[in-house]
Fold:
Amino acid sequence: MENHQQQNTRAQWGSRLGFILAAAGSAVGLGNLWKFPYITFENGGGAFVLVYLGAIVLVGAPIMIAEVLLGRKTQRGPVGAFRLLGRDRPGGVAWTGVGILGVVTGFVILSYYSVVAGWTLRYIVLALSGKLAPLAHDPAALQTFFGTFLSNPWQQTFFHLVFMGATVGVVFFGVGRGIERAARILMPVLFLILLALVFYVVWTPGFNQALTFIFRPNFSELTRGGVLEALGHSFFTLSLGMGAMLTYGSYMRKKTSIPRAAITVCVLDTLIAVMACIIMFSIIFSFDFEITKSSTILFTTLPVVFFKLPGGVVISALFYILVAFAALTSTISLLEVVASYAIDEFGWARRRATLIMGGSIALFGILNALSLGGVQRLSEINLIGRPSTAGVFGTLDYLASNWFLPVGGFLIALFVGWVLTKDENLQELETGHGRMKTFGIWRFLLRFAAPLAVGAIIVSVILGAEYQ
Ligand code: TRP
Structure:
């Protein structure tokens, strides 16, 4: 396959903040607002948060810089980037496989991520129509409602398709007029809603307990599984391991500093994850509420507590709008990886690529939508054979989070750290940055810390542990 992308016509972000907004939009998503709070809860708080912060600094940030570097240096998506740079080096064209794995991973993650994102649409409708209030006053009824909703094939499919439609609608308009513009509107709104909610919970009785839970480490709570989970999550939350940041980096101008931009994105992502924890735990600790199933906190616990507080309708509606916006800027980045692959490699026009790829993912995703109880055969499939991997949804999520992303991230770290030369790296990172004093630290972390840590995840998954 020839590469049809002309280097000098590649789209670019329209402003200096373009990359940062879009990349932060990709990073901030259900991982921050849904997954991070509940895994923090399951792992006992403080100590887990500390390990997570360590993973972001020592593993996540260096790999983020490496991905963006690959994209901007080659001006190509993951497949093109690895083919171009791998060609005359050890490993040769086999490196292209890393790019292809990335595109496949984007396809797979988007197909189920959009189903969960769809749930937030259902809850926005519920909150605004006044139907959430009565449910929230009866926790058992809410639980039943959620269960019935999950196993309703029509509703699951409908909201998934609506969310995919919104995603396609943005990517259709391209890098500047679509993705960047959406991020420029959605990200500030998202941040303002978060700030408003944080100010709100400062006055709730559970606020202090929440801070203690999140920031006071109690290492006796920490398990080895927790450490691996923190590591794995640092990947997912920063959108690493499949070329999303690489693709966004390929639209970055040479004038922009890669290290500064990447670190800003890491800081924003972490800040928002911690804010989400403060909001949720303050509210939860304000009431004596027993959490039975933490993975559905967002949909079965939070509404109950929202409505115990003044202004429940407004707070709950705002909250689900926030989650939907965060999810949308993430699904956009997932689709962009797949669509830009068709644009670059098959020479398709953007509109065609977006519609065909987005349409295929939407169709394939229906299998996930139906596997939550709607269609028995699909919920019973369990190729991996563990309770948490049941159903098409469970299987794909397990494969993507436990295998594809860590393996992709591992190979990206190896490629940039060991196959590219020191001078090549230095040159790209100093373009738009000036002298990079921390280059040595970055390179050390990328060559040793990152592969070791990610290698540990992979080995433990092989040995049968799972961290998601
Ligand atoms: N980072 C997003 C979140 O936390 C999800 C996401 C978007 C993602 N693009 C990705 C995860 C690429 C892995 C790879 O919700």
